[in-house]
Amino acid sequence: MKKIEAIIRKSMFTKVKDALLNVEVNFFTYWDVTGVGNEKQGQVYRGVTYSTSDIQRRYLSIVVSDEFVERTIKAILESAYSGEVGDGKIFVFPAEEAYRIRTKETGKKSLN
């Protein structure tokens, strides 16, 4: 099992969510987050642009079995891509174990 964490543009979330559902990733968690990166967003107020280093993003946390890792990453890469600075990042970590609380199932069975 792997834990995949992705930080993406908020504007791309619906595309990413639909792409994940299309590759049968039916469960994940997400948060709205603020970060600092290479992209600089400008805020316009009364015709004047102000630069800010705080960037609004969406953070996804996904745990998948090993056979879903590549298709999950590919779905995120393709659907979150705009070609501009600030498209986001994907991180992959080993997940040692998973438990479904209701049934006490563990491992791969707990992910379905």
What would you say this structure looks like, in words?
The protein is α+β, with helices and mostly antiparallel strands and 112 residues long. It has a single domain (2-111), classed as Alpha-Beta Plaits (2-Layer Sandwich), CATH 3.30.70.120. It has helices spanning 13-22, 69-80, and strands spanning 2-9, 29-45, 48-64, 88-94. Strands 2-3-1-4 form a four-stranded antiparallel β-sheet, with helices on one face. β2 and β3 form a beta hairpin.
Helix and strand topology:
Layout lengths: L1 E8 L3 H10 L6 E17 L2 E17 L4 H12 L7 E7 L18
Antiparallel strand pairs: 1-3, 1-4, 2-3
Helix pairs in contact: 1-2
Number of domains: 1
Shape: elongated
Protein structure class: alpha+beta
Proportion in helices: 10-25%
Strand arrangement within the widest β-sheet reads 2-3-1-4
What's the β-strand tally?
Answer: 4
